[in-house]
Amino acid sequence: MVLLVRLMALALALALGPAGTLAGPAKSPYQLVLQHSRLRGRQHGPNVCAVQKVIGTNKKYFTNCKQWYQRKICGKPTVISYECCPGYEKVPGEKGCPAALPLSNLYETLGVVGSTTTQLYTDRTEKLRPEMEGPGSFTIFAPSNEAWASLPAEVLDSLVSNVNIELLNALRYHMVDRRVLTDELKHGMALTSMYQNSNIQIHHYPNGIVTVNCARLLKADHHATNGVVHLIDKVISTITNNIQQIIEIEDTFETLRAAVAASGLNTLLEGDGQFTLLAPTNEAFEKIPAETLNRILGDPEALRDLLNNHILKSAMCAEAIVAGLSMETLEGTTLEVGCSGDMLTINGKAIISNKDILATNGVIHFIDELLIPDSAKTLSELAVESDVSTVTDLLRQAGLSTHLSGNEQLTLLAPLNSVFKDGAPRIDAQMKNLLLNHIVKGKVASKDLYRGQTLDTLGGKKLRVFVYRNSLCIENSCIAAHDKKGRYGTLFTMDRMLTPPMGTVMDVLKGDNRFSMLVAAIQSAGLTETLNREGVYTVFAPTNEAFQAMPPEELNKLLGNAKELANILKYHIGDDILVSGGIGALVRLKSLQGDKLEVSSKNNIVSVNKEPVAETDIMATNGVVYAITSVLQPPANRPQERGDELADSALEIFKQASVFSKASQRSVRLAPVYQRLLERMKH
Question: What span, in angstroms and rounded, lies between the C-alpha atoms of 625 and 541?
Fold first, then answer.
């Protein structure tokens, strides 16, 4: 019986919502924001909502969590006020808003919610007031008094001069012949108005803002005996044209009109859907260099990418933007849409000159600057915005800039400008060839690169790809930023100049006088063939200085013992290629001798076994060479480390014995033995 009661209690708890009532359907974004405002206002009494007001304006917003802490709307500071939540009123002498508003008909409710001007204009018509006071079920999106006052004088005059046709029709367009609450207002839906069954566009955004033909709901869900009233911040008008038709009739879209026709996008823009068109004006097109504009207009694929980059996948009204958010275009790129006061911004720029031009299939915002996507740009145009101007200037000086502006399928490996902080190199035949080796044949994407892959350059070299846990490198240079994919080519931003390999590890060592003693030692140890054949080696090469720093007796003894010499040298050779950009904090690299080398990087200083490296990334066809100024000793050759290893082993045994001592008297007797062994090892 007790178990049954507990199960029933658990079932009831799961069925109850946070307030102890039966959990209903999921709340809409608007209801969630209202709930948060109510939560923030509860200290002031029941049914009190916290409201954010933008300083210096009459704009008010129910607050969500993010806005509450930031205290800003569109970058402008706000103050918090506390008001009765929708549907409630104050009672003299009592805290908060304990009383529910009395239910009245639609006409009387208009006055309660702050739309007395709508009441006034309803009175002027002969038919509408009796309808609002009579039986039925209606929804009215009622403009606030401020909304009516902000109408242009000529528009208002045309309405009030013909109250039983123009004004009546305008008011009926704000009405729906059924009760519609905010939880039914879905993003992208259309409601049929009471004026000629014309559609009203509804958008319900994730931040809780609801718009009606891009007018924002200020106070929603005010119930009446014969319907519901939603207060909105604008007087709305009928929508008759689709996006394509608006482009056709606007003089400022002459160039856009021709571009849309050439791209074939007119079918999309006159079809069904809900889009946002960031429509470039004639002025926007005129700001682009004629050569660039003519190239794009003459290239159907680039033109289509350009226009798709101006079309957002959903309708976005200006009133819905209260902070920055990312929005995806039909091109697949992401635009940062934000606001600064009353101005909308795109990627941080206030380039929208006219907003919220409504169409049957979306909304249009006029912009005065073209948004050219990477996919419509040449390599040279990509480089302008990528902090790699130094290398593009070098390519120009070397007479190679045509590769960046033509239609060749290429990938440019472009070092950052910071690589040349000590000055750009002089252009000669060798430098020109090196620059050609920074241009890879084919349009490559970094996501398609894999370990062991080779890339052919215009300079005739084959560059190797190295993939590490946190780095993707091509020879000694690693990719420093996401690649940019242009119309014909791809731009990789690299962290240093490439140094293509010029020979095997043995060739590299022989060609550098610093390693003459090492070369002799390698030959004596019989490792010449190993370092000449194909392979993947990382060689920590002691310089002559390193050998000379050894005690003479120790050096002579080492050089006179081929077996021991080979063992020491193999400890300097890792069994994989590790360039400095792939090290990260610490890498344990297995040596040919068997023990592991600890390779670390901190503050751009590479160390091996805690010894700083003198020079990194000397590339060879079968590996990479690091110059070091000391001869590394394997762990087995280090007395202190050998003792530490034995001591550590004894300590581990002692710990095990201590654990078992709790369950075994025998272990207790053995524990002192292990303790004495530990002390001997430590000394």
Answer: 7
> Which class is domain 243-372?
mainly beta
Q: Which helix (H) or strand (E) holds 366?
A: strand 362-367
pLDDT for the residue 11: 40
Instruction: Give me the CATH code for the 505-637 domain, please.
Output: 2.30.180.10
- The letter for the amino acid at 568 is I
| 119/2: higher pLDDT | 119
Single out the residue of 204, 200, 144 nearest to residue 174, CA to CA. Answer: 200
pTM here is 0.80
Owner of token pair 């700001």: 287
Residue 359 has a pLDDT of: 96
Cα separation, 364 vs 275, in Å, equals 8
Tokens standing for residue 224: 């009446």
pLDDT of res. 386 = 86
Give the residue-averaged pLDDT of 309-315: 94
Please determine, looking at this structure, whether the domain spanning 108-232 carries the CATH number 2.60.40.10: no
CA distance 399 to 286: 30
Pairing of strands 76-84, 72-73: antiparallel
List beta partners, residue 378.
Answer: none
Residue 16 clears pLDDT 90, i.e. is over it: no
CATH 2.30.180.10, domain 377-494, yes or no? yes
pLDDT of residue 66: 85
For residues 270 and 257, is the Cβ–Cβ distance under 8 A? no
Task: Locate 510 and state its tokens.
Answer: 């022989």
Are 170 and 237 contacting, i.e. CB atoms less than 8 angstroms apart?
Answer: yes
514-563 pLDDT, tens digit each: 999 999 999 999 999 999 999 999 999 999 999 999 999 999 999 999 99
Matching fold, domains 108-232 and 377-494: yes
Cα–Cα distance between 65 and 496 in angstroms, integer?
Answer: 44
Collapse the DSSP code of 476 into the 3-class scheme (helix H, G, I; strand E, B; otherwise coil) and give the result. coil
Q: Which strands, in side-by-side order, build the sheet including 76-84? A: 60-62, 48-54, 76-84, 72-73
At 125, which helix (H) or strand (E)? Answer: none
* One-letter amino acid for residue 506 of the chain: M
Residue 432's H or E segment, with its range, is helix 429-436
- The residues, ordered by sequence, that sit 6+ positions from 152 with a Cβ below 8 Å of its Cβ are none
Residue 255 · residue 285 · CB < 8 Å = yes
Q: How many CB atoms lie within 10 A of CB 438?
A: 27
Amino acid at 122: T
Residues across the chain: 683
**Domains of the chain: which residue ranges?**
29-99, 108-232, 243-372, 377-494, 505-637
